[in-house]
Sequence to fold (410 residues):
Amino acid sequence: MTETRSAFLLGALIGAVSAVVGATLWGLAVLLHGLEPMVIPSTAALLCGGLSGGLAVSGNLAAPIRRGALPGLVLGGAAFLVLTGFGPWSLNPDLHRWWIGLGILFVFGSAVFAARWGLQGLPLQTLDRTLLETLIIRMLRGLGLLFFVTIVAFPFYYMVITSLKSQMELLNNPTDLSLSLKSGWLGLFRAYTEVWHTFRFKHFVWTSTLVSVTTVVITLTLSILGAYAVARLRFPGRAWMARSILLIYMFPAIVLVIPLYSVFSQLGLRDSLLGLLIVYPASTLPVALYMLKGYFTNLPAELEEAGLIDGCSRFEVIWRITLPLSLPAIASVGLYVFMIAWNEFLFAFMFLDDPSLFTLPRGMVSLNSSEVPRQYLMAGAVIVTVPVMVLFFWFEKYLVSGLTAGSVKG
Fold:
């Protein structure tokens, strides 16, 4: 079998699968636009997607996209229109013509792109087992990535779009997830203004920030000293302590909350932020100790010994040598602790009764009632989610390097 024929057959296979997936996403997009469901001929999409994928890769894969992909895109789209009798323009009378054109472009563009990407760099002289296995792995990886991105991104998209709608729009067409600018930019963010001022989310954000940052400072201070002691110092019980750091995670939080509620009530710590500042570091300290211990163990001990020889105290060695070398791990642990403290709900719900002390998750519960419009609830959820997302993407490189630190010996 020649290389061109192999490329055409494999490209047709990938293009057919991609076209069907793209047609399904096209139909879902129309449904989320608030229009009637649109039935797209899957057989025509399968055949024409195969044609697009095969033509896109039958030439030189290294050719520019305008030469390698354009014929497959144009001929596949034209064949789809011919096979359906130009039916897409009558699939949904309420659908604008540009939606139809963009949909066809998306379906067969995805077929062309997937075919070229799937076969890039593969030896196509013979259809052997290695080639087929590599191709299947690439297809499954692409479909899996698309699936997980969709199920992760859709809830957030739904949350944001719902928060930008008015109560009348939600009542008239609950399934419409498109964005309308008829009310202007001020009207678009009305729910955020109401939530921020009327429902006191401004105060909740300040309280959550105070609790989370304080938790990070306490946890990092104690975990750095504790992890360094376990990694470097020699004392009785060191090995047992190193093995039992994560022992607290054998007990779920729901088991601990009732005894803590009783004890805090007797000590007068319930309905106060001090109670949260005791519980949060206690729950995050074990994993912070475990992560930093692995990192400190892999740091060269000779650097610290040189500092001690030069006259530095043990704390000066930690401050001047160990901490600068451990910034990625410390940043990842700090971000991890901040996310836990920012999103924690169970202890805040059990211990806080005064609305002036509510954290963001606790304040979100106050919105969850039949009297509060749904767009306000979604606007509050966006306010809770966005700061953590921004911090995560900002410190992503530190998080990845810190979490993998200490995983490899030598």
